[in-house]
């Protein structure tokens, strides 16, 4: 499994003309863990959603190449894309409270994902749903399968989302800020779970995050995005030795327990970063 992105551009028409939100992004991903970091609005989510053709209807996308395991995404129709989305590539969104259906039980939603891509009876799908809940380390999976989203904590809801994405047994997983709505201790548990599942199943992982220490710990490579462009790419373990001014600026803004300061640094931007 490999994904190739060359010169990807995503723009939106506005009353003041076209605005380019993603500008010439290029990268490749295999069965590895790649993180994309950057500020809000830097184009991280749009880049990831382009791979699955999940952009807003008003977005315009072009690329020299955009392929999923040799399949030309730009030339693929919606019907064929449905055989990629979910079945071969999963997407975990930020907040389970807004991503899960409030009128369906957790088990029913996982079972629906299972049947959509694997078929089988309702009973077999519900048994598979409980098994998947157990795989994502939920105690009493039978009880949780019968619960509605509003009856679940944020961490449990995110585990249900992960179970839904794992139901079709995908080869590639996009995790878009999967821990942003969770507290610090649950964040670590969820990330360890995603890391463990990706390693055990040999999946490719694209992790979108604002958390640089988290990405450097769980990923193999890091792409740093600024204003719609990838300004730096480096090994995750070498993030502390970043050379681009924007990456160094992000790192300098992080609070430190070992070297506390009275006031955090503020990003000093340079016009050359937009070139």
Strand percentage lies at 15-25%
Helix fraction by DSSP (H/I, runs of at least 4): 25-40%
Characterize the largest beta sheet: strand count, sense, and whether it forms a barrel.
6 strands, mixed
Helix/strand class: alpha/beta
Mean pLDDT: 90
| C-alpha termini separation | 33 Å
Instruction: Extract low-pLDDT stretches.
Output: none
- Radius of gyration over all CA atoms, rounded: 19 Å
Strand runs, count: 11
Report the principal-axis shape.
globular
Name the helix and strand elements from N-terminus to C-terminus, one letter apiece: EEEHEEEHEHHHHHEHEHEEH
> Biggest sheet, strands in spatial order?
7-8-9-3-10-11
**Count of DSSP H/I helices:** 10
Oligomer: single chain
How would the blueprint of this fold be written?
Elements: E1 3-14, E2 17-29, E3 33-37, H1 44-51, E4 59-62, E5 65-68, E6 71-72, H2 78-81, E7 89-92, H3 96-99, H4 106-118, H5 122-135, H6 141-145, H7 154-166, E8 172-176, H8 184-201, E9 204-209, H9 212-218, E10 221-226, E11 229-235, H10 245-252
Parallel strand pairs: 3-9, 3-10, 7-8, 8-9
Antiparallel strand pairs: 1-2, 1-4, 1-5, 5-6, 10-11
Helix pairs in contact: 4-5, 4-7, 5-7, 7-8
3D architecture notes:
With 275 residues, the chain is of the alpha/beta class. The chain has a domain at 94-169. It contains 10 helices and 11 strands. The strands form 2 sheets. The chain has a 6-stranded mixed beta sheet with strand order 7-8-9-3-10-11, sandwiched between helices. A hairpin with a 2-residue loop joins β1 and β2 (17-29). α4 (106-118) packs parallel to α7 (154-166), α5 (122-135) packs across α7 and α7 (154-166) runs parallel beside α8 (184-201). The two termini are 33 Å apart.
């Amino acid at each position: 499994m490999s994904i190739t992105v060359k010169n990807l551009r995503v723009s939106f028409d506005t009353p003041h003309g076209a605005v380019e939100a993603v500008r010439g992004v290029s990268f490749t991903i295999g069965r590895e863990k790649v993180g994309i970091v950057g500020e809000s609005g830097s184009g991280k989510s749009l880049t990831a959603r382009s791979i699955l053709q999940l952009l807003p209807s008003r977005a315009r996308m072009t690329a020299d190449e955009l392929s999923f395991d040799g399949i030309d995404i730009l030339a693929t129709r919606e019907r064929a894309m449905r055989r990629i989305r979910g079945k071969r590539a999963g997407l975990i969104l930020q907040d389970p409270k807004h991503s899960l259906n409030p009128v369906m039980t957790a088990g029913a939603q996982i079972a629906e994902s299972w049947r959509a891509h694997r078929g089988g009876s309702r009973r077999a799908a519900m048994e598979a749903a409980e098994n998947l809940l157990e795989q994502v380390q939920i105690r009493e999976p039978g009880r949780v399968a019968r619960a509605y989203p509003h009856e679940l904590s944020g961490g449990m809801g995110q585990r249900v989302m992960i179970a839904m994405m794992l139901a079709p047994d995908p080869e590639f997983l996009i995790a878009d800020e999967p821990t942003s709505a969770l507290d610090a201790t649950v964040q670590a548990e969820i990330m360890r779970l995603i890391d463990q599942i990706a390693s055990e199943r040999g999946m490719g992982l694209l992790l979108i995050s604002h958390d640089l220490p988290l990405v450097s710990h769980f990923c193999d490579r890091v792409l740093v995005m600024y204003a719609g462009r990838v300004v730096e790419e480096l090994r995750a373990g070498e993030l502390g030795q970043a050379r681009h001014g924007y990456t160094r600026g992000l790192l300098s803004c992080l609070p430190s327990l070992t070297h506390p300061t009275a006031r955090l640094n503020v990003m000093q931007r340079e016009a050359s970063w937009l070139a």
